[in-house]
Sequence to fold (373 residues):
Amino acid sequence: MKERGCYGNNDSSAFSQKGEKEMYRDHTKVVQIGNKKIGGGNPILIQSMTNTKTEDAEATVKQILELEAAGCDIIRCAVPTMEAAQALKEIKKQIHIPLVADIHFDYRLAIAAMENGADKIRINPGNIGSTERIQAVVDVAKERNIPIRVGVNSGSLEKELVEKYHGVTAEGLVESALDKVRIIEEMGYDNLVISIKSSDVMMCAKAHELIAEKTDHPLHVGITEAGTLYSGNIKSAVGLGIILSQGIGDTIRVSLTGAPLEEIKSAKRILKTLGLRKGGVEVVSCPTCGRTRIDLIGLANKVEAMVQDIPLDIKVAVMGCVVNGPGEAKEADIGIAGGVGVGLLIKKGEIVKKVPEDQLLDTLREELLHWER
Fold:
């Protein structure tokens, strides 16, 4: 594996001949998951997980199609029963993105999931059971060339590793993950993706830094059990920001206690903020102050909701006053600012139109729908 370049590393070996910083993700193995490729410098893909009963194929398909429309690249479904494994066959017929089967404990469910069309399986070899059972899963995966995601979670770190490292640590997580990977590699299969997750943001970040030096398998990155929409978004943004900015991570999931659609919105915004994905309208807005004479919070929220279905790669500013609004919005492609009963439409810092306040939102939408560079 080629040396990866970390931010803050002044070693010239961290740069390609083109002068661009080489990233760990540029040199991970390429893994084919259904109709998508990850690793080897391919785009970072967004994952989510359904919260329907997988046995209910109709409800599960409905949710997956909504997630597809929002920008989900890969979907994972829980497979706790044989009925759920068999439902994958019908689900696969109606969706357009790769499907990952999430398996715990029962090796027969992993085999059935693959037989019913799963594009990838997620297992922890530590809870699958005997070597023979793991081998049985690996044999089917190898026969069908189905990738295996080896998942390790800080909440289930082996007792001996907790004792060795005097607690749950990044080093313990990495050792556990690589032990599991080694089990499968020694069975003659290396079509693998690794995930090491913790709800401790800094531990998770350190674990990814450590494992990136020890393997070239693609890494699925996320902060597990991150929490509710509010706290989970903050923890995920911080954790994923640290990890992704170091060139680590081939797929991501923002794990939230909430609707899966919110995970996709947050993941897209994180990638866009880091410059790792283009597309989608970016909304910037000023903080409220004593000069604000409109419902800026309500207006900004309406604008953010409104632009979700507009396929532009531009920046929109929402400003709260007509005094500083035009100047503060000049870095945006287009913006609006509000006053007492009046609103301004601004392009690159220049006022181009004045409209009644109640027409401001509609005026902005019309401009975006007929946008020309």
Notes: The first helix runs from residue 57 to 70. The mean pLDDT is 86. Residues 43 and 304 are 25 Å apart (CA to CA). The longest strand covers residues 350-356.
